[in-house]
Amino acid sequence: MIRIGRFEIERVEEIVLREPKALYKDWDEARVAPIADWFVGDYYDPQDGTFATSIHSWLVRDGDRTILIDTGGGNGKPRPASPRFDGLDLPFLERLAEKGVRPEDVDLVLLTHLHVDHVGWNTRLDNGDWVPTFPNATYVMTEIEREWRDPERGAKGKPAEPTYPFVDSVKPVLDHATVEIVRGDEIDYLPGISFVPVPGHAPGMMAVRLQDAGEEALFIADVMHQPIQVYNPGWSSKYCEDPDLATETRAKILAHAADTGCLILPAHFGGTHCGYVRRDGDGYAYEPSRVAP
Prior knowledge:
The protein is an alpha/beta fold. 19% of the residues lie in helices and 31% in strands. The chain is built from seven helices and 16 strands. The chain has helices spanning 36-39, 92-98, 116-119, 143-149, 165-176, 228-231, 243-260; strands at 2-4, 7-20, 44-45, 50-61, 66-69, 108-110, 123-126, 129-132, 138-142, 178-182, 193-197, 206-212, 215-221, 263-266, 275-280, 283-288. Strands 1, 2, 3, 4, 5, 6, 9 and 10 form an eight-stranded mixed sheet that branches. The protein has a four-stranded mixed sheet with strand order 11-12-13-14, with helices on one face.
């Protein structure tokens, strides 16, 4: 467990995948050598050229509220376009229970963006219907993401068939749960909790900032998929919808993290899954957290 003032942070793992280095079109194997002492093994396997890509939720408790940040791929979802997430059967809710949290205990579900691997546990299958997994929670998403993904609104070109993640994992909460649509730049959305716009990987993606007792944690979603991007911030993943904008956003987040010393908690890093950014000459270096949440 990691503490930021009154906030307690834990990671709830869904699955760890192996991602090929083709994730980055600008991949340069020579960039591994300077960081191999810590990067090889926990993060990258040069033998098969794959990364450890963790799919997880962040669990945050402040004494009053229980909060989930993103909800992974979900169980039983038909995903022909994303085979890695097709028909999963994983003990995510059991792992959440091990942290002392039942679905009905969750007060807020903060969705950084609405990609397939961030919305899946929004819903579960109940007698053939997709219903909200967290019945007492308020689900929070940005207006841009909702508009961009919804086949009935801005996403006219998106498929509306049941295999599209919005249909089985977002629309049911819009229809049957409490949902709050935000801009994604709210300061003090709740005491000590703010949203920061981080577009590029997804049009309306937001980061979640915790601040208390002079400390800060920043959940950066998919601003970076792997820590090697700290050293190579011009590398955008193949999943970034606007790679140039993603690069601009990454530069801003790296500068902020280095200037403030805040803990960054990405959505997919292996290793200890979170860490710190330090200035290193004209660039940056990554310092993995010594505590695994």
